[in-house]
Amino acid sequence: MNDTFLKAARRQSTSYTPVWFMRQAGRYQPEYRQIREKYTLPQIVRRPELTAEVTLLPVENFGFDAAILFADITTPLYGMGFQLDIVEGRGPVIDNPIMTDGDVNAVRQFSAERDTPFVLDAIKILKGELRVPLIGFSGAPFTLASYLLEGGPSKNFIKLKRFIYSRPETWSLLMNKLVKAMVDYLTAQVNAGADALQIFDSWVGRLSRHDYQRYVAPHMHALFEELAQLGVPLIHFGTQTMHLLEPMSAAGGDVIGVDTTTPLNWARNLLGERAVQGNLDPSLLFAPRDILREGIIRVLNCAGDKPGHIFNLGHGVLPGTDPDAVAYAVDQVHSLSGGAV
Ligand code: CP3
Q1: Cα separation of 198 and 182, whole Å?
Q2: Among 61, 143, 180, 325, which has the highest number of CB atoms less than 10 A from its own CB?
């Protein structure tokens, strides 16, 4: 087992910098697109053999140091009583978004064993096949709530914010329910074999620091306190979170995800005794090789020599990315950081 990723997450020294990419399994891969011609995203996720195959693809093709379970952050929401569609080019759209206090009261208690057994089966298959650690994941309560309240992807998050400001007690109840659900979901993933967990709070950066502290941080603190008992490294990720890195790291996580808009050296200084993950601009994978290589060197230099850096993009691999650029990038991270893999 190649445990370089786990060592870096625990801030132990490694012979090279481990690398994986968010959304490393996805539509930029021709093999994945072939599978998608026959199955939708929910269909793939409900077939453990297919999930395992898709999860393995980028690890086998490009030599990533970790695999991330193939699923969507919306996968557990069906079990909580939501109907949703993944709309091509737009994202998840909820047919029955939350509008009233009654809708929050009606949110069903989630059970991973009952509602997402296929996810746990996929993890068990993967554990027999992987030679690198498997990252389990979920959306963070705020980011999940943003879909549930907005009804889909949003720019300004007005419905969400209006709800937070005008119904703080119902908001708190919803967040409590989502924390409980994600604790169940993530605990089940670790019991099935996941070696680490990433919590995606992708849209939380759209809150001010004040609102994060008041409406989100206590819930994230509760979530991380429960998850810490599982004994696996926890990655806490968001985008456009330069103003939130301190409260986010105070809420929890062994590794703090840093997106491209935050300078990585600044984040490392700020966070001190905490591992960091990031933060190559995903669009550099569209650049000529010398520019891409320069970008990789810059990220490695910003991370410095201190143990505790996991190389990643600032956000997920973009559609249309050339798989050869991904192969090149992984190779360069390994060789430039001192490893021959
Ligand atoms: O790349 C693909 O086509 C894979 C299939 C797919 C996923 N999600 C996989 C996924 C599709 C079609 C979606 C739909 C979806 N879900 C969208 C639409 C945009 C898009 O890229 O098609 C969106 C915005 C979501 C919601 C979502 N899913 C968020 C906010 C996150 C957190 C990560 C992030 O981008 O901020 C996810 C996670 C996700 N979706 C994963 C996968 C395999 C897991 C994380 C990973 O692989 O890194």
Answers
A1: 11
A2: 143
